[in-house]
Amino acid sequence: MTRKSKQPGGHNPLTYAETKRLKSSGYGTQSTRLTSQSMLPFGHCCLSLSQIEGDAVATPSGHIYSRETIVQYLLTKNRELKEQKAEYERMRLQVENKRAEWEETQQKKAQQQFRSKDQGAMSNALVLKGDDGGEEKEAKTENSLSHVSYWLSSSQPNAATATTSGGDFDYQKEIMALPSPPPDRPPSPMSGEPLKLKQLIPIHLVHEQDEGISNNGERVLCSVSHKRITTQDAVAIKSSGQVMLKSVFDELAKPSMICPVTGKKFKDKDVISLVKGKSGFAASGNVEAKKYNPTLT
Question: How far is residue 200 CA from its own chain's centroid?
Fold first, then answer.
């Protein structure tokens, strides 16, 4: 076997010009380098992706949001979860009603069999010759067709099955067929963990414009050293709401467990590690996006 067969593509490998031409048309895995405009700077809202003008809050996961944006998000999600819970309870009630109907049918059938057995073989034969026998035969024929005739309405997943009037009713199977119940709390937009309104932690962001350093005002400063916070590690203190660089916190605040700005005491559980900002430089983290597309190899 020649060496050519071990190249990508097997016996018919693509040349460099063909691969480059196909890449531009969307063939194969696409990758691109992200610039600073595609990154979220530190201190910007993770939902609106813009600079926080009003009150800023942080979640236990360390993400920063605008209070107005995150509160509106929680109210909307709570309303959607309420509707989803009502729909789930309605579907669950349908299953319970089917179960009650099936149990009632089975009970009536058992009573009828007991009466026919008690009356003797003659009365049982008369019952079989009546109109009920034809209905039972027709129901059995319909049930047998529903197994092979998938286009019938009774064979559809959401349609009411004929098992409630006749055959066996699998309660566990019906419950497992229901969608998963909605969560009690809406998830956090970034971390996906359940989030409550009282878990939002108010923080104080110091911008360059507030200190008269720059008219742009987009950069956030450390509340102690007044250095720019871009891609460095930063922490926030719950009791005071001050945001500072982690290096400054380890040097000035952690030894005494007192906030350098407000003078309030804090505990280890009051310190929140904030999510770092990103930039177009590779040192700030992953700056490349990839999209997988199937190929011939």
Answer: 20
**CB-side exposure of 86: number of CA atoms within 13 Å?**
6
Dihedral of the alpha carbons of 253, 257, 259, 263, in degrees to the nearest 10: -130
- Give the position of tokens 């005739």: 149
> Within a 10 A sphere around the Cβ of 67, how many other Cβ atoms?
15
Give the tokens for residue 187: 């998830």
Phi and psi, residue 292, nearest 5°: -80, 130
CA pair distance 49, 47, nearest whole angstrom: 6
Provide the whole-model pTM. Answer: 0.68
- Residues 137-163 have pLDDT tens digits of 555 555 555 556 667 666 666 544 444
Q: How far apart are CA 158 and CA 98, in angstroms?
A: 13
Report the amino acid identity of residue 44. Answer: H
Contacts of 265 by beta carbon, 8 Å cutoff, 6+ apart: 239, 257, 258, 259
Report residue 17: phi and psi, to 5°: -65, -40
Q: Measured between alpha carbons, how far is residue 58 from residues 82, 187, 201, 234 in Å? A: 25, 15, 5, 12
3-state secondary structure of 270: helix
Query: What is the DSSP code (8-state) at residue 251?
Result: I
In total, the chain counts a number of residues equal to 297
User: What is the distance between the alpha carbons of residues 133 and 124, in angstroms, rounded to a whole number?
Assistant: 11
DSSP characters over 198-224: GG-EEEBPEETTTTTS-SS--SEE-TT
